[in-house]
Design a protein that fits this description.
Order of helices and strands: HHEHHEEH
Shape: globular
Keywords: DNA-binding, Transcription, Transcription regulation
Number of strands: 3
Pfam family, one: HTH_5
Number of domains: 1
CATH topology: Arc Repressor Mutant, subunit A
GO molecular function: DNA binding; DNA-binding transcription factor activity
CATH class: Mainly Alpha
Strand content: 5-15%
Strand order of the largest sheet: 1-3-2
Mean pLDDT: 91
CATH architecture: Orthogonal Bundle
CATH superfamily: Winged helix-like DNA-binding domain superfamily/Winged helix DNA-binding domain
Number of helices: 5
InterPro entries: ArsR-like_HTH, HTH_ArsR_DNA-bd_dom, HTH_MetalResp_TranReg, WH-like_DNA-bd_sf, WH_DNA-bd_sf
Protein name: ArsR family transcriptional regulator
Radius of gyration: 14 Å
Length: 97
């Protein structure tokens, strides 16, 4: 996979509202799947699919601790991407008034 394809894969993964919400929820550190499931309010199977996509795009990494699986952002650079998009959106909204 080349650089352009990987970039598109990351944007596609972040382009779903639930996956965006998952990434924002993980801003402050790793969370157990059970915590993510409480926040997202989906079936475990649906949440697992979203996590798989985020992990496949390199956005998340995971670690099993005891009986629980913990997910975390793979890099703080992901926060920078989200924060920059949020700033762009706010600027766009402000300039559209």
């Amino acid at each position: 996979m080349n650089k352009e394809e990987m970039s598109v894969r990351i944007f596609k993964a972040l382009g779903h509202p639930i996956r965006y919400k998952i990434v924002k929820f993980l801003y402050d550190g790793p969370k157990c799947v059970c915590e993510l499931n409480e926040d997202v309010w989906f079936s475990q199977a649906n949440l697992s699919q979203h996590l798989k996509i985020l992990k496949g795009a390199g956005i998340l990494s995971c670690e099993k601790v005891g009986m629980n699986m913990y997910y975390r952002l793979s890099s703080d650079e992901i926060k920078n991407i989200i924060d920059n998009v949020d700033k762009f959106v706010m600027s766009f909204i402000d300039n559209s008034k």
